[in-house]
Protein backbone atom coordinates (compact mmCIF):
# COMPACT_ATOMS: atom_id res chain seq x y z
CA UNK A 1 0.00 0.00 0.00
CA UNK A 2 1.11 3.53 -0.75
CA UNK A 3 0.98 6.40 1.73
CA UNK A 4 -2.53 7.31 0.54
CA UNK A 5 -3.85 3.82 1.41
CA UNK A 6 -4.23 2.65 -2.21
CA UNK A 7 -2.19 0.02 -4.05
CA UNK A 8 1.20 1.21 -5.33
CA UNK A 9 0.99 2.26 -8.97
CA UNK A 10 4.06 0.97 -10.80
CA UNK A 11 2.94 2.35 -14.17
CA UNK A 12 4.58 5.26 -15.89
CA UNK A 13 3.89 7.46 -18.89
CA UNK A 14 6.41 8.24 -21.59
CA UNK A 15 5.58 10.13 -24.81
CA UNK A 16 1.89 9.92 -23.88
CA UNK A 17 1.96 6.10 -23.72
CA UNK A 18 1.15 4.23 -20.51
CA UNK A 19 3.65 1.54 -19.50
CA UNK A 20 2.39 -1.01 -16.93
CA UNK A 21 5.81 -0.70 -15.29
CA UNK A 22 8.93 1.29 -16.22
CA UNK A 23 11.07 -1.72 -17.22
CA UNK A 24 11.63 -1.94 -20.98
CA UNK A 25 13.93 -4.26 -22.92
CA UNK A 26 16.35 -2.15 -25.00
CA UNK A 27 16.85 -2.83 -28.70
CA UNK A 28 19.48 -5.61 -28.70
CA UNK A 29 19.81 -9.44 -28.68
CA UNK A 30 17.11 -9.86 -25.96
CA UNK A 31 14.61 -8.44 -28.50
CA UNK A 32 15.98 -10.22 -31.59
CA UNK A 33 12.85 -12.33 -32.25
CA UNK A 34 9.15 -11.82 -31.68
CA UNK A 35 8.97 -15.10 -29.73
CA UNK A 36 11.62 -13.79 -27.31
CA UNK A 37 9.72 -10.54 -26.73
CA UNK A 38 6.53 -12.51 -26.03
CA UNK A 39 8.36 -14.64 -23.48
CA UNK A 40 9.73 -11.50 -21.80
CA UNK A 41 6.24 -9.98 -21.70
CA UNK A 42 4.85 -13.17 -20.17
CA UNK A 43 7.39 -12.73 -17.36
CA UNK A 44 6.33 -9.14 -16.65
CA UNK A 45 8.44 -6.72 -18.73
CA UNK A 46 6.48 -3.51 -19.32
CA UNK A 47 7.76 -2.84 -22.83
CA UNK A 48 10.32 -3.77 -25.46
CA UNK A 49 12.19 -2.03 -28.25
CA UNK A 50 12.70 -4.48 -31.12
CA UNK A 51 16.22 -5.11 -32.42
CA UNK A 52 16.81 -2.27 -34.91
CA UNK A 53 14.93 -2.81 -38.20
CA UNK A 54 16.57 -1.88 -41.53
CA UNK A 55 15.60 -1.78 -45.19
CA UNK A 56 15.83 -5.20 -46.88
CA UNK A 57 18.39 -3.92 -49.39
CA UNK A 58 20.85 -3.12 -46.57
CA UNK A 59 23.01 -6.23 -46.21
CA UNK A 60 24.02 -7.11 -42.65
CA UNK A 61 26.77 -9.65 -41.95
CA UNK A 62 27.94 -9.82 -38.33
CA UNK A 63 31.50 -10.72 -37.31
CA UNK A 64 32.33 -13.53 -34.87
CA UNK A 65 33.14 -13.26 -32.11
CA UNK A 66 31.57 -9.85 -31.55
CA UNK A 67 31.52 -9.56 -27.75
CA UNK A 68 34.22 -9.12 -25.12
CA UNK A 69 33.96 -8.21 -21.45
CA UNK A 70 35.80 -6.36 -18.69
CA UNK A 71 35.90 -8.43 -15.52
CA UNK A 72 36.27 -7.37 -11.89
CA UNK A 73 38.88 -9.14 -9.74
CA UNK A 74 36.13 -11.47 -8.54
CA UNK A 75 35.29 -12.48 -12.14
CA UNK A 76 32.07 -10.51 -12.52
CA UNK A 77 31.40 -8.94 -15.95
CA UNK A 78 31.39 -5.23 -15.17
CA UNK A 79 31.79 -3.91 -18.71
CA UNK A 80 30.58 -5.35 -22.01
CA UNK A 81 31.78 -4.51 -25.51
CA UNK A 82 29.95 -5.49 -28.69
CA UNK A 83 30.51 -5.06 -32.39
CA UNK A 84 27.05 -6.30 -33.36
CA UNK A 85 25.09 -4.67 -36.18
CA UNK A 86 21.33 -4.21 -36.58
CA UNK A 87 18.85 -7.03 -37.29
CA UNK A 88 19.66 -9.48 -40.06
CA UNK A 89 16.01 -10.52 -40.39
CA UNK A 90 13.73 -9.44 -43.28
CA UNK A 91 11.36 -6.57 -42.61
CA UNK A 92 8.28 -8.59 -43.60
CA UNK A 93 9.03 -11.19 -40.91
CA UNK A 94 9.39 -8.47 -38.29
CA UNK A 95 6.19 -6.73 -39.33
CA UNK A 96 4.23 -9.96 -38.92
CA UNK A 97 5.78 -10.54 -35.50
CA UNK A 98 5.08 -6.97 -34.34
CA UNK A 99 1.38 -7.54 -35.16
CA UNK A 100 1.35 -10.87 -33.34
CA UNK A 101 3.04 -9.52 -30.21
CA UNK A 102 0.59 -6.61 -29.98
CA UNK A 103 -2.37 -8.94 -30.48
CA UNK A 104 -1.24 -11.14 -27.59
CA UNK A 105 0.00 -8.32 -25.32
CA UNK A 106 -2.03 -5.21 -26.21
CA UNK A 107 -1.26 -3.49 -22.90
CA UNK A 108 2.53 -3.89 -23.16
CA UNK A 109 4.43 -1.25 -25.09
CA UNK A 110 6.18 -2.34 -28.28
CA UNK A 111 8.55 0.11 -29.92
CA UNK A 112 10.05 -0.35 -33.38
CA UNK A 113 13.69 0.72 -33.52
CA UNK A 114 14.90 1.52 -37.01
CA UNK A 115 17.91 2.63 -39.01
CA UNK A 116 18.19 3.39 -42.73
CA UNK A 117 20.49 5.05 -45.22
CA UNK A 118 20.19 8.84 -45.35
CA UNK A 119 17.30 8.94 -47.83
CA UNK A 120 13.83 10.22 -47.03
CA UNK A 121 12.09 7.28 -48.75
CA UNK A 122 14.07 4.69 -46.78
CA UNK A 123 13.17 6.17 -43.38
CA UNK A 124 9.57 6.89 -44.29
CA UNK A 125 8.99 3.40 -45.72
CA UNK A 126 10.27 1.78 -42.52
CA UNK A 127 8.28 4.15 -40.30
CA UNK A 128 5.01 3.64 -42.14
CA UNK A 129 5.44 -0.14 -42.25
CA UNK A 130 6.19 -0.43 -38.52
CA UNK A 131 3.27 1.83 -37.62
CA UNK A 132 0.86 -0.12 -39.82
CA UNK A 133 2.11 -3.38 -38.27
CA UNK A 134 0.96 -2.11 -34.87
CA UNK A 135 4.06 -0.64 -33.17
CA UNK A 136 3.18 1.82 -30.38
CA UNK A 137 6.12 4.13 -31.11
CA UNK A 138 9.20 4.43 -33.32
CA UNK A 139 12.75 4.73 -32.00
CA UNK A 140 15.26 6.18 -34.46
CA UNK A 141 18.65 4.56 -33.98
CA UNK A 142 20.91 7.53 -34.72
CA UNK A 143 23.49 6.24 -32.30
CA UNK A 144 25.12 2.86 -33.08
CA UNK A 145 28.88 3.60 -32.74
CA UNK A 146 30.35 0.71 -34.75
CA UNK A 147 29.99 -0.60 -38.29
CA UNK A 148 27.14 1.68 -39.27
CA UNK A 149 29.05 5.01 -38.99
CA UNK A 150 31.47 3.69 -41.65
CA UNK A 151 28.42 3.67 -43.92
CA UNK A 152 27.48 7.21 -42.86
CA UNK A 153 24.61 6.08 -40.60
CA UNK A 154 24.07 5.29 -36.90
CA UNK A 155 26.20 7.54 -34.68
CA UNK A 156 27.53 9.29 -37.80
CA UNK A 157 24.05 10.84 -38.09
CA UNK A 158 23.41 11.32 -34.37
CA UNK A 159 26.64 13.27 -33.95
CA UNK A 160 25.42 15.98 -36.32
CA UNK A 161 22.52 18.21 -35.28
CA UNK A 162 21.49 19.01 -38.88
CA UNK A 163 21.22 15.31 -39.87
CA UNK A 164 19.42 14.48 -36.61
CA UNK A 165 16.89 17.26 -37.27
CA UNK A 166 16.40 16.24 -40.92
CA UNK A 167 15.85 12.51 -40.33
CA UNK A 168 13.56 13.12 -37.36
CA UNK A 169 11.44 15.47 -39.45
CA UNK A 170 11.26 12.97 -42.34
CA UNK A 171 9.84 10.36 -39.99
CA UNK A 172 7.54 12.84 -38.24
CA UNK A 173 6.09 13.80 -41.64
CA UNK A 174 4.57 10.32 -41.98
CA UNK A 175 4.24 8.98 -38.41
CA UNK A 176 1.13 9.32 -36.30
CA UNK A 177 2.63 7.41 -33.37
CA UNK A 178 5.32 8.97 -31.11
CA UNK A 179 8.85 9.26 -32.50
CA UNK A 180 11.77 8.78 -30.11
CA UNK A 181 15.36 9.67 -31.03
CA UNK A 182 17.97 7.37 -29.48
CA UNK A 183 21.06 9.46 -28.74
CA UNK A 184 24.74 8.61 -28.75
CA UNK A 185 26.92 9.58 -25.77
CA UNK A 186 29.86 9.84 -28.20
CA UNK A 187 29.55 13.61 -28.59
CA UNK A 188 31.23 16.53 -26.86
CA UNK A 189 27.90 18.16 -26.04
CA UNK A 190 24.54 16.35 -25.97
CA UNK A 191 22.42 19.52 -25.82
CA UNK A 192 22.58 20.59 -29.51
CA UNK A 193 21.68 17.05 -30.58
CA UNK A 194 18.64 16.92 -28.29
CA UNK A 195 17.67 20.40 -29.45
CA UNK A 196 17.87 19.23 -33.09
CA UNK A 197 15.66 16.23 -32.27
CA UNK A 198 13.11 18.61 -30.72
CA UNK A 199 13.22 20.91 -33.76
CA UNK A 200 12.75 17.88 -36.02
CA UNK A 201 9.53 17.17 -34.11
CA UNK A 202 10.64 14.29 -31.86
CA UNK A 203 8.27 13.30 -29.06
CA UNK A 204 11.02 11.93 -26.80
CA UNK A 205 14.67 10.95 -26.55
CA UNK A 206 16.30 7.74 -25.36
CA UNK A 207 19.83 7.77 -23.95
CA UNK A 208 22.34 6.29 -24.02
CA UNK A 209 23.40 3.96 -26.79
CA UNK A 210 26.78 2.30 -26.27
CA UNK A 211 30.02 4.21 -25.62
CA UNK A 212 32.66 3.79 -28.33
CA UNK A 213 35.43 1.63 -26.90
CA UNK A 214 38.53 -0.54 -27.31
CA UNK A 215 38.52 -3.27 -24.67
CA UNK A 216 42.18 -4.31 -24.67
CA UNK A 217 44.97 -6.17 -26.43
CA UNK A 218 45.98 -9.86 -26.21
CA UNK A 219 49.55 -9.61 -24.96
CA UNK A 220 50.59 -12.93 -26.54
CA UNK A 221 49.23 -12.36 -30.04
CA UNK A 222 49.36 -8.53 -29.87
CA UNK A 223 45.88 -8.46 -31.43
CA UNK A 224 43.33 -6.01 -29.96
CA UNK A 225 40.19 -7.59 -28.48
CA UNK A 226 37.98 -9.19 -29.59
CA UNK A 227 40.16 -10.79 -32.27
CA UNK A 228 38.20 -11.29 -35.46
CA UNK A 229 40.52 -13.38 -37.61
CA UNK A 230 43.57 -11.60 -36.17
CA UNK A 231 42.21 -8.05 -36.38
CA UNK A 232 39.81 -5.97 -34.32
CA UNK A 233 37.98 -2.65 -34.38
CA UNK A 234 36.22 -0.20 -32.11
CA UNK A 235 33.09 -1.45 -30.36
CA UNK A 236 30.26 -0.21 -28.18
CA UNK A 237 30.63 -0.36 -24.40
CA UNK A 238 27.67 -1.13 -22.12
CA UNK A 239 26.83 -2.67 -18.74
CA UNK A 240 27.62 -1.48 -15.21
CA UNK A 241 30.74 0.42 -16.30
CA UNK A 242 28.73 2.92 -18.39
CA UNK A 243 26.04 3.76 -15.81
CA UNK A 244 27.77 6.97 -14.63
CA UNK A 245 27.91 8.15 -18.26
CA UNK A 246 24.23 7.31 -18.79
CA UNK A 247 23.19 9.11 -15.60
CA UNK A 248 25.22 12.16 -16.57
CA UNK A 249 23.68 12.32 -20.05
CA UNK A 250 20.12 11.72 -18.80
CA UNK A 251 20.37 14.37 -16.09
CA UNK A 252 21.87 16.88 -18.55
CA UNK A 253 19.02 16.19 -20.96
CA UNK A 254 16.45 16.52 -18.18
CA UNK A 255 17.87 19.87 -17.15
CA UNK A 256 18.13 21.32 -20.65
CA UNK A 257 15.60 19.65 -22.98
CA UNK A 258 11.82 19.76 -23.02
CA UNK A 259 11.62 16.18 -24.33
CA UNK A 260 10.73 13.24 -22.06
CA UNK A 261 13.56 10.76 -21.60
CA UNK A 262 13.92 6.99 -21.67
CA UNK A 263 16.97 6.24 -19.49
CA UNK A 264 19.47 3.58 -20.62
CA UNK A 265 22.94 2.44 -19.61
CA UNK A 266 24.25 -0.07 -17.09
CA UNK A 267 20.97 -0.73 -15.29
CA UNK A 268 20.93 -4.13 -13.60
CA UNK A 269 18.90 -3.54 -10.44
CA UNK A 270 15.82 -1.66 -9.23
CA UNK A 271 18.13 0.75 -7.44
CA UNK A 272 19.77 1.73 -10.74
CA UNK A 273 16.34 2.23 -12.33
CA UNK A 274 15.27 4.49 -9.45
CA UNK A 275 18.46 6.53 -9.86
CA UNK A 276 17.68 7.09 -13.55
CA UNK A 277 14.11 8.12 -12.74
CA UNK A 278 15.19 10.47 -9.94
CA UNK A 279 17.46 12.13 -12.51
CA UNK A 280 14.67 12.63 -15.03
CA UNK A 281 13.96 9.39 -16.92
CA UNK A 282 10.28 8.52 -17.41
CA UNK A 283 11.09 4.85 -17.99
CA UNK A 284 14.24 2.73 -18.27
CA UNK A 285 15.63 0.38 -20.89
CA UNK A 286 17.85 -2.59 -20.08
CA UNK A 287 20.06 -4.71 -22.34
CA UNK A 288 23.37 -5.99 -20.92
CA UNK A 289 21.98 -7.11 -17.55
CA UNK A 290 19.49 -9.31 -19.42
CA UNK A 291 22.24 -10.60 -21.70
CA UNK A 292 24.22 -11.65 -18.62
CA UNK A 293 21.39 -12.86 -16.36
CA UNK A 294 18.24 -13.42 -18.44
CA UNK A 295 14.70 -12.03 -18.44
CA UNK A 296 14.09 -13.33 -14.88
CA UNK A 297 15.68 -10.24 -13.33
CA UNK A 298 12.28 -8.60 -13.87
CA UNK A 299 11.01 -10.21 -10.64
CA UNK A 300 13.57 -8.43 -8.46
CA UNK A 301 13.15 -5.21 -10.45
CA UNK A 302 9.39 -5.12 -9.85
CA UNK A 303 9.52 -6.23 -6.22
CA UNK A 304 12.42 -3.93 -5.37
CA UNK A 305 10.77 -0.89 -6.92
CA UNK A 306 7.47 -1.53 -5.15
CA UNK A 307 9.15 -2.04 -1.75
CA UNK A 308 11.17 1.15 -2.23
CA UNK A 309 8.08 3.20 -3.08
CA UNK A 310 6.28 1.89 0.03
CA UNK A 311 9.32 2.45 2.26
CA UNK A 312 9.76 6.04 1.05
CA UNK A 313 6.06 6.90 1.23
CA UNK A 314 5.45 7.31 -2.51
CA UNK A 315 2.23 6.16 -4.18
CA UNK A 316 3.47 5.76 -7.73
CA UNK A 317 6.58 5.38 -9.89
CA UNK A 318 5.79 8.64 -11.65
CA UNK A 319 6.37 10.62 -8.46
CA UNK A 320 10.08 9.80 -8.69
CA UNK A 321 10.74 11.45 -12.04
CA UNK A 322 13.29 14.24 -11.73
CA UNK A 323 13.15 14.55 -7.92
CA UNK A 324 16.95 14.67 -7.58
CA UNK A 325 17.57 17.15 -10.39
CA UNK A 326 17.49 20.29 -8.19
CA UNK A 327 20.40 18.71 -6.26
CA UNK A 328 22.69 19.03 -9.28
CA UNK A 329 24.27 22.47 -9.19
CA UNK A 330 27.31 24.18 -10.69
CA UNK A 331 30.64 23.06 -9.25
CA UNK A 332 31.35 26.66 -8.25
CA UNK A 333 28.15 26.71 -6.15
CA UNK A 334 29.06 23.60 -4.11
CA UNK A 335 29.51 24.17 -0.36
CA UNK A 336 33.10 24.73 0.70
CA UNK A 337 32.39 25.59 4.34
CA UNK A 338 31.41 22.15 5.63
CA UNK A 339 34.86 20.52 5.81
CA UNK A 340 34.91 16.78 6.43
CA UNK A 341 37.86 14.78 7.76
CA UNK A 342 38.67 11.08 7.74
CA UNK A 343 38.17 9.08 10.94
CA UNK A 344 39.22 5.51 11.60
CA UNK A 345 36.99 2.88 13.21
CA UNK A 346 39.73 0.87 14.89
CA UNK A 347 37.45 -2.15 15.49
CA UNK A 348 37.13 -2.70 11.70
CA UNK A 349 40.76 -2.02 10.76
CA UNK A 350 42.95 -5.05 9.97
CA UNK A 351 46.14 -2.99 9.59
CA UNK A 352 46.56 -3.78 5.89
CA UNK A 353 48.16 -0.35 5.42
CA UNK A 354 46.64 0.43 2.00
CA UNK A 355 45.11 3.69 3.25
CA UNK A 356 48.53 4.72 4.58
CA UNK A 357 50.14 4.02 1.20
CA UNK A 358 47.56 5.88 -0.89
CA UNK A 359 47.39 8.80 1.51
CA UNK A 360 51.20 9.10 1.29
CA UNK A 361 51.41 8.56 -2.49
CA UNK A 362 48.24 10.24 -3.74
CA UNK A 363 46.82 12.16 -0.79
CA UNK A 364 48.05 14.50 1.91
CA UNK A 365 50.27 12.23 4.03
CA UNK A 366 47.74 12.34 6.86
CA UNK A 367 47.48 8.63 7.76
CA UNK A 368 50.20 6.65 9.54
CA UNK A 369 50.63 3.72 11.92
CA UNK A 370 51.36 4.59 15.53
CA UNK A 371 54.08 2.77 17.49
CA UNK A 372 51.47 0.24 18.70
CA UNK A 373 50.38 -0.44 15.08
CA UNK A 374 47.03 1.37 15.17
CA UNK A 375 46.07 3.87 12.50
CA UNK A 376 46.27 7.53 13.38
CA UNK A 377 45.00 10.38 11.27
CA UNK A 378 46.65 13.77 11.46
CA UNK A 379 43.59 16.05 11.36
CA UNK A 380 45.75 19.04 10.43
CA UNK A 381 47.08 17.31 7.32
CA UNK A 382 43.85 15.54 6.27
CA UNK A 383 42.30 17.50 3.39
CA UNK A 384 39.02 15.57 3.41
CA UNK A 385 39.43 14.16 -0.11
CA UNK A 386 37.95 10.74 0.95
CA UNK A 387 40.42 8.58 -1.03
CA UNK A 388 41.14 6.37 2.00
CA UNK A 389 37.44 5.50 2.45
CA UNK A 390 37.31 4.20 -1.13
CA UNK A 391 40.33 1.89 -0.92
CA UNK A 392 39.41 0.41 2.49
CA UNK A 393 37.56 -2.88 1.89
CA UNK A 394 36.63 -3.10 5.59
CA UNK A 395 34.81 0.26 5.73
CA UNK A 396 37.15 1.16 8.60
CA UNK A 397 37.50 4.75 7.36
CA UNK A 398 34.61 7.22 7.35
CA UNK A 399 34.24 10.91 6.69
CA UNK A 400 33.03 12.97 9.67
CA UNK A 401 32.52 16.69 10.27
CA UNK A 402 35.71 18.55 11.12
CA UNK A 403 35.82 19.27 14.84
CA UNK A 404 38.47 22.00 14.70
C1 LIG B 1 25.06 -6.86 -28.22
C2 LIG B 1 24.35 -5.55 -28.28
C3 LIG B 1 23.58 -5.23 -29.40
C4 LIG B 1 22.92 -4.00 -29.46
N1 LIG B 1 22.16 -3.71 -30.56
C5 LIG B 1 21.47 -2.54 -30.60
C6 LIG B 1 20.61 -2.26 -31.70
O1 LIG B 1 20.42 -3.06 -32.61
N2 LIG B 1 19.95 -1.07 -31.69
C7 LIG B 1 20.10 -0.15 -30.68
O2 LIG B 1 19.47 0.91 -30.71
N3 LIG B 1 20.91 -0.41 -29.63
C8 LIG B 1 21.59 -1.58 -29.58
N4 LIG B 1 22.37 -1.85 -28.48
C9 LIG B 1 22.51 -0.85 -27.40
C10 LIG B 1 21.52 -1.10 -26.25
O3 LIG B 1 20.19 -1.01 -26.68
C11 LIG B 1 21.75 -0.11 -25.09
O4 LIG B 1 21.53 1.19 -25.56
C12 LIG B 1 23.16 -0.19 -24.51
O5 LIG B 1 23.62 -1.52 -24.49
C13 LIG B 1 23.25 0.39 -23.10
O6 LIG B 1 22.39 -0.27 -22.20
P1 LIG B 1 22.89 -1.47 -21.21
O7 LIG B 1 24.06 -0.97 -20.43
O8 LIG B 1 21.68 -1.82 -20.38
O9 LIG B 1 23.29 -2.60 -22.11
C14 LIG B 1 23.04 -3.08 -28.40
C15 LIG B 1 23.80 -3.41 -27.27
C16 LIG B 1 24.44 -4.63 -27.20
C17 LIG B 1 25.24 -4.96 -25.97
Bound molecules: flavin mononucleotide
Radius of gyration from CA coordinates? 24 Å
- β-strand percent reads 15-25%
Average pLDDT reading: 96
CATH architectural category of the largest domain: Alpha-Beta Barrel
- The helix/strand class is alpha/beta
Q: How would you explain this protein's 3D organization?
A:
This protein is α/β, with parallel strands linked by helices. It folds into 2 domains: 12-327, Alpha-Beta Barrel (TIM Barrel); 335-401, Alpha-Beta Plaits, CATH 3.30.70.20. It has helices spanning 34-43, 91-104, 120-133, 155-158, 161-174, 191-199, 243-256, 270-278, 288-293, 297-312, 354-362, 387-391, and strands at 12-14, 17-19, 23-25, 47-53, 67-71, 77-82, 109-114, 137-141, 179-182, 204-207, 211-213, 235-238, 261-264, 281-286, 340-344, 367-369, 375-377, 397-401. The strands form 5 sheets. Strands 3-4-7-8-9-10-13-14 form an 8-stranded parallel beta barrel, surrounded by 8 helices. Strand 3, helix 1 and strand 4 (47-53) form a beta-alpha-beta unit. It is globular and about 75 Å long. The model has no long low-confidence stretch (mean pLDDT 96). Bound molecules: flavin mononucleotide. Flavin mononucleotide binds at residues 26-29, 51-52, 80, 82, 84, 86, 113, 141, 144, 182, 209-210, 238-239, 242, 264-267, 286-289.
